[in-house]
Design goal:
5-stranded mixed sheet, 11 helices, homodimer, alpha/beta
Chain lengths: 345, 345
């Protein structure tokens, strides 16, 4: 059983806990033999919920009792330090002590980010671990890196994000030679804030990424680049505005279709196709966002994630582990450090 | 004729020049007696184009010859300095010398921003002039301030943006006591990058604005605030992503409706309503963006603006002038400076 991938799932995290995370775990072990899921949370609640599923390989699911829950509104640093018996802290500690390979949670983004960094720890040489969600585009998906806690990042951080993002897109999403671009306020050479102007030549000098230059926000949804590099404040704005514009536009369209009998009949006919289209363009539909550059894997799923997303995040962890993504990242970061040191000599 | 508002229109700027700017000017003078439009650009071209409209009050349109054109791709600072006989430089100089009240252009955003600042000049006490487009929301429009050239702004700049934006929304758009919010990566107190953390308490202390706190990008399209304050890099990302997500989503929806005969029939029935809906949610439909805090008014219209948008921008200038917005801004900024000085005593 050496190849068994062990994934901790936060049974208490997110709007639909415990029902959906637990259903996701059950569905996952029903589909794959090579995983073990450890459900972390209040034992009684988990047991009661699991009892609803008589028919699953019981040896593939374990329970780890955690009596506390970190709420979304709690200040993350304080919560992680104080609630030692919370599902997030106990789950991350399993990864820290290598008793699990990955941790999946739909709970407090702040607590997962802070906890991932403090408890699991950064891979050697990684300066800041970025949170990197996949966002939908006209052509498929792009990786938006960073949407995490590292606001006011430095150029060297962004260079590492570009490298880590490239590895992820190539080996997990399967994009050969992924195009890397930095978010900018224009395509012209003189554009950019201080951070972008300083980072641009550093990215241009990287031989291990396919850097294509600046990307304006307008071109992100069109899919002009595979890895979209930015610091976390801008990344957050992009991710949240994707959701905001999408949902406002969709409700406007729906309302527009209800104006008279003719449009109502039309709406009935286009509804299924429309629903399908909108699903492919929903930022929350594209699995969990990995927190890259840590010693283990931490995946943040959307707060409103349902069973299928949890299951997909679990499978994503398996792929991550089996492809040795962490080893590849560590190797690439180390090589960059060595090259830099050589050039400095 | 003391109340005549004199507006310079760049006849050479934008994708649809000279046809659309000139048509916009003609339509404007046909509708209002209290304006004079000065068309600036290559005289022969303007004359030839104007000849197509035999029937308009000729005394309300003048031509100012300008032999050069600043292209969108030219580095703005260099272009403004070098092309003294361009439509942008000559038009802005009319405003500088108070021979015109306002300048409207669909040309190079960079050149208009740089030229506005250098040639027209800032109002006394204004640290940076912000470019402030109106963006569509579920409830109407919000003012996004700043989308201009001031990347890496300082907290004091953002405070001035909030004040100027409030005056504009109240007196031009007609929103009583407009809600002001700062773009942030979360609603919690501890969120924000260095700039936002430093600006937040300053905005909170302003007694002359209705500051409601942080706004996450997700809530911008929903219309949670009337004045959206941010520095220009983030403002540019928001404005461009609005366009990008909107247009990608719309083409996906259109394609989705063409999948089979049933959806095609449905599409025919909903098309007019859909078109109307999308029009109200098009960032480019909401007139020109003013460059606030200058000694005169400078309005940047979308590069693809057509006659009706130029006409609306001209009327916007009239309203701006007649409502004494510049005087109101100067007064408010001066008052803040005086109050500060008093507190410092």
């Amino acid at each position: 059983m050496a190849d068994l991938v062990r994934i901790v799932v936060d049974a208490m995290g997110g709007d639909n806990a415990p029902v959906e995370p637990i259903k996701g775990a059950v569905d996952a072990v029903k589909e794959r033999k090579d995983i073990k899921v450890i459900l972390v949370g209040v034992e009684d609640i988990i047991k009661k919920e699991l009892a609803k599923y008589p028919d699953y390989p019981k040896e593939q699911i374990e329970i780890l009792n955690a009596t506390e829950i970190i709420e979304t509104a709690e200040p993350p640093v304080f919560a992680v330090r104080k609630k030692k018996d919370s599902s997030i802290v106990k789950g991350l500690n399993l990864v820290r002590h290598q008793e699990a390979d990955a941790f999946v949670s739909s709970g407090s983004t702040g607590a997962v980010l802070v906890g991932g960094q403090i408890l699991v720890g950064r891979s050697k040489g990684v300066e800041r671990p970025p949170l990197a969600p996949l966002i939908p585009t006209a052509k498929g998906v792009s990786l938006l890196i960073d949407c995490g806690a590292n606001v006011d990042a430095r150029p060297s951080h962004l260079v590492q994000f570009a490298k880590m993002g490239s590895i992820y897109m190539e080996h997990i999403v399967g994009v050969k030679n992924p195009r890397v671009a930095i978010v900018n306020n224009g395509a012209e050479e003189e554009k950019g804030n201080a951070l972008v102007k300083e980072t641009f030549p550093l990215l241009k000098a990287c031989e291990d990424i396919n850097f294509i230059g600046s990307i304006e926000a307008r071109d992100i949804p069109a899919g002009y680049a595979d890895v979209i590099v930015c610091e976390a404040f801008v990344g957050n704005v992009i991710l949240k505005l994707y959701e905001g514009v999408g949902s406002t536009l969709v409700s406007k369209i729906k309302a527009g279709m209800m104006t008279n009998l003719k449009t109502k009949i039309g709406a009935l006919l286009v509804k299924p196709a429309l629903k399908e289209t909108l699903k492919t363009f929903d930022a929350s539909e594209h699995g969990g966002a990995p927190l890259l550059g840590l010693k283990g894997l931490v995946v943040k799923t959307h707060g409103s994630a349902v069973a299928v997303e949890i299951k997909n995040a679990i499978f994503q962890c398996v792929q991550f582990k089996q492809n040795g993504i962490n080893e590849k990242i560590a190797e690439r970061i180390q090589k960059a450090k060595t090259d830099e040191a050589k050039q400095g000599e």
